[in-house]
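[Automated response] Your request has been received and processed.

Submitted sequence:
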Amino acid sequence: MSRPAGFFAATRAGKKKVTASLDPAAHKQLKGLAVEKDGTTEALLTEAINDLFKKYGKPEIAPRKL
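Generated structure:
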């Protein structure tokens, strides 16, 4: 069964995507860390974004993914 055009997960409604190009070794390490922490790369990236906000004195407003 194929998804209809314009399909998106309800959990992503109202969200914006951010992308980054990573070296293959960094990508592999990120995925490995997600497995190690029994989580997702999205959760790790959200954590990292909140850490960046905190570093620069901004509110940590990216929702935490467990």
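Summary generated for your ticket: The longest helix spans residues 41-55. Residues 22-66 form one domain.
If you did not submit this request, please reply to this message.
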